[in-house]
Amino acid sequence: MEIRIGIQNSPREISFETSQPAAELEAAVASALAEKTGYLKLLDSKGTTYIVPTATIAYVELGSDEARRIGFVG
Which CATH number fits domain 2-62: 2.50.20, 2.30.30, 1.20.120, 1.10.286? Predict the structure, then answer.
């Protein structure tokens, strides 16, 4: 699943692939925004950890779970 996180006052976004299910990611984002920890911590499919301050998050976009097709569709 692809995740894109927009950062306030930044022209670029954070984008990466993860193997976590959408429901789990949605719960993690909601929890981080509701709690006073001040950051969102996510792990990508390669093992890299992303820590984003919740005060600077503009949006979080969760892609679909289905795999991309390769080749021509007929």
Answer: 2.30.30
